[in-house]
Amino acid sequence: MQRDASIYRKQLMKIIVSLLSLVSLSFISCNQNMKEAKPGIPLPPGVQKTYSGLKHKLLRPGKIGPSPNSLSTVTVHYEGKTKDGKIFDSSYKRGKPAEFSLDQVIQGWTEGLQLMTKGEKRRFWIPANLAYGENPQIGQPGGELTFEIELLDFYQ
What we know:
This protein is of the alpha+beta class. The protein contains three helices and seven strands; from the N terminus they run αββββαβαββ.
């Protein structure tokens, strides 16, 4: 009986160690995109690149404080351009800030806005795989997109 309990404890420990390993690997994987990428091709001054390929540059610092998370709703002013510089969307042109839930936008926005604080303005170069792809649906721009985003406010 005591031997059975010992075997059971050993098997249980193996299962626990395996689960903890999986959990820690998933956290590492989730956080990799938020870290800065190792240098490869030199970037212009002030431009940083994350592991996912998102490039960003601080244009105006924000207030010291928290940043939105992937489930936050943000209020922003922004302008989006295609690789050839054509503006395809702009809250500035509409004269009214936009409000979005970060779990309802392209990946590049979800990742990028989490790097910002209230009042901050950044330029993002979002690769196609973090935007709408190379061959998106009709009405959506394809390829790398450039956004200037001003984070006005957010809530969880």
